[in-house]
Amino acid sequence: MNPTTIKSLDDVTLDPLNANAGNAEGRAMIAASLSRFGAGRSILLDKHGTVIAGNKTVEQARAAGMTKIRVVQSDGTGLVAVQRTDLDLTVDGTARALGIADNRTAEVDLTWDPTVLEQLRKDDPDALAGLFTDAEVAELVAEALRDAEPSDVDAPAQVEAGVELRKKWGT
What we know:
By secondary structure, this protein is mainly α. The chain has helices at residues 24-37, 55-63, 93-108, 114-123, 134-147, 155-169; strands at 4-8, 44-45, 51-53, 68-72. Strand 2 and strand 3 (51-53) form a beta hairpin.
């Protein structure tokens, strides 16, 4: 049996290079799910306690006032399951709703951070191997640039370009 410990949720570190930026709607859905159903799935930590998967869940659990985390050590050779003793899928609509909420929040809260993906593509290509092609990352970066707010654009470079055009056109 794998060793299990109870730790403070404050001992968990969020991944500073999490490629999922998430979004407000997804965070609200995670918060609502935690409030309605409680914790329903595990997150994944590295050996140092840094979140590999589940960063937004940790954020919302903290915001909801959860303070403890049950850590099950594993070397990855077997699945780790969370068994809710208060739910019965055959008779409990809440159990089915929790499954749907889990899948829906994952879908809604997924917002790739193209900056992180591009950094990983350059610095750690194995992290994206078989998951993203260079072309897919380039498209996400281009899409982010197209969608950028004017305040997100390099204003000094735009001003400089404008000055050059005025000189060229004599205006």
